[in-house]
Each structure stands twice: as structure tokens, then as C-alpha cells.
Here is the input.
Amino acid sequence: MPTLNPILSTFRFPDQPSAADVVNYVDEKSLIRILKKYGEEKQAQLVAHAIIDSRYAFGRITSTAQLADIVATAFPSPYVIDKIGRKAHVATRTFQALRIFVNNELNEVNNGLEICHHLLSVGGRCVVLSFHSLEDRIAKRHFHGIDMNERLNQSLTDKLRGPEVMKYSQDFIEKITEKCWQPMSRKISTPSQEEVANNPRSRSAKMRVAVKLK
Here is the structure.
């Protein structure tokens, strides 16, 4: 867990909120949304409530250690066991959510893949190494031609099923059926047990590789 002091004062741009701004000024409903969306925190409501209660009772949250302690009050124990049997602090997902939100990381991943497609030559390979499912889903959508605003596992048949297909132009139908990328494998690559044992930080890594078609 980070133990820096003062709290997460980093921000991407001077006119954007810092993590300290988020935990000290954002309302409870917005905090819940941030924790759920960017941290995939199942206890988002309890964590957000604990943060709000602490603000009212003790004032500003000024350090990462203080925030970690506050988050821990929302759980039976401050530690959980991760995939390889190591202890992980329960505030890990909260810090992930704050980092992704403040740095606008998911949009950066999406923009990076758009730029990669623009710059890469036909036949070139794009490799995406992600460390949590939010990033991996974006890569999957790009490589499998799934629009960012549509349901993730919607098939082409689903897209063109029913009377609504009549409202689509031929150009639109051709656009959604043509592929820009060809994944090199149907499955993602993940580290072996041996690699995880030698490099525990690799435990959540996922790799996707695709070839540019057009």
C-alpha cells in the first residue's frame, strides 16, 4: 500500500481534479460510481459511506495512509488473500479507481489504440499488455470490432436482427461487418504459474495481439 504523505496530490493537468479533491469534495453517489466503475469495488457503497463519514467527523483526508485506514473500516479485515495467496490491502481497489479516474486512463488506452491503428502499416502487429479487466475490455473491443457503446458480446446476427435492420444503410452495414484487426489468438495470453512465482506483479497481466488488416 502507498504510504505517501500528503495524499495523492498528483493530477494529469493543472485544471483537472486531484485524487485529494475527489476524496474530499465529491458527493457520496459520485464516489460510489467512481469506485464501482474504475475500481470494480463490490463494497463501493460501504467504502464511499466511510469516506463521507470521516470527512464530516474529522475534516480533510490528508494522506494515503489515512485513506487506507478509512477504507479498511468498511471491511471485516484490512487484508484479503489474492490469487497467489498473498495478503492484499482492501483499499487497493479504491486507489486503483482514484488513479484511473484522475488520470483519465481508460480514454488514454482507447485513444492510444486509435492512434496505433492510424500509424501502423497493414500487416503490422499491435500488442496490448493490460493489468486489469477494464483496460483489457477496451483492447478486446478494438481487436474484435465491437463499438465502444454497444453491448460487449453482441454478435453480428444480434446487430442485424429484426425490423430495425431496415433503418441501416448499406454503407453502415458494410462498416460494421468489415474488420480492421485480426486477433492472432482467440484466447488472451496470461502468465504461467512459474512466471507469477518469479514475478508476482505479473499475476494480473493479460496480453492480446492483433494484426492490422486495413
Q: What stands out?
A: The CA atoms of residues 7 and 62 lie 5 Å apart. Residues 44-58 form the longest helix (15 residues). The chain is about 45% helix and 10% strand. The domain at 105-212 is CATH 3.40.50.150 (Rossmann fold).
